[in-house]
Amino acid sequence: MNALMQKLSLEQHTDRDLLQLVIFKLGGEEFGVDIMAVQEIIKMPVITAIPQAPEYVEGVINLRGKIIVVVNLGKKFNIFSSEKNDEYKVIVVELEKQVIGMMVNSVSEVLRIPVNSVDPAPEIITSGMSANYIQGVGKLDNRLLILLDLRKVLSDHETEELYQFV
């Protein structure tokens, strides 16, 4: 479906029927998160490493005077990619009372997709307790988008563990 036809088909849906997603990449895979869960997206800042932090914790940054822990989603999901470059971004989200940065390879776009184009994630993926952050799989033309809830990527224990670093 070309871009014009896709736009026309989306216009037939009401806003309630659409999900507005921030699309980002890890490795070669595309992921989507609800735009309402994202506070902001920033360029890759200078990150200060934290001694004895879990492997997936990249370090801390100073964001307008506030110290924020940055989690490397690639390491957290065991999706490894090439060296860091200018496209790396940090997606800033709020987990309960703490603001956290989620480092991704790149942020490509904001999309609106019909709710009915999202299928539940396969049971083999969601059967594990650690995969409760996978909300489903969005189908868009020849693309599959894994939809995540970034607020659930870290377990309660992992979130508590991060509190000791800030």
Topology, please?
Layout: H1 3-11, E1 18-26, E2 29-34, E3 38-43, E4 57-63, E5 66-72, H2 73-76, E6 89-95, E7 98-104, E8 106-114, E9 118-119, H3 123-126, E10 134-140, E11 143-148, H4 156-163
Parallel strand pairs: 2-11, 5-7
Antiparallel strand pairs: 1-2, 1-8, 3-6, 4-5, 6-7, 9-10, 10-11
Structure description:
The protein has 166 residues and is of the alpha+beta class. The protein has a single domain, classed as CheA-289, Domain 4 (OB fold (Dihydrolipoamide Acetyltransferase, E2P), Beta Barrel). 15% of the residues lie in helices and 44% in strands. The chain is built from four helices and eleven strands. The strands form two sheets. The protein has a six-stranded mixed sheet with strand order 8-1-2-11-10-9, with no helix packed on it. A five-stranded mixed sheet has the order 3-6-7-5-4.
Strand content: 35-45%
The fold-level CATH name is OB fold (Dihydrolipoamide Acetyltransferase, E2P)
Query: How many β-strand stretches?
Result: 11
Radius of gyration: 17 Å
- CATH class identity: Mainly Beta
* Major sheet strand order: 8-1-2-11-10-9
Estimate percent helicity. Answer: 10-25%
**Sequence stretches where pLDDT stays below 50 over 5 or more residues:** 1-13
Count of alpha/pi helices: 4
Counting helices, strands and paired strands, the structural category is: alpha+beta
* The named CATH superfamily: CheA-289, Domain 4
Question: Which descriptor suits the 3D outline?
Answer: globular
What distance lies between the first and last C-alpha atoms, to the nearest angstrom?
48 Å
The total domain count is 1
| N-to-C order of helices and strands | HEEEEEHEEEEHEEH
Tell me what the CATH architecture is.
Beta Barrel
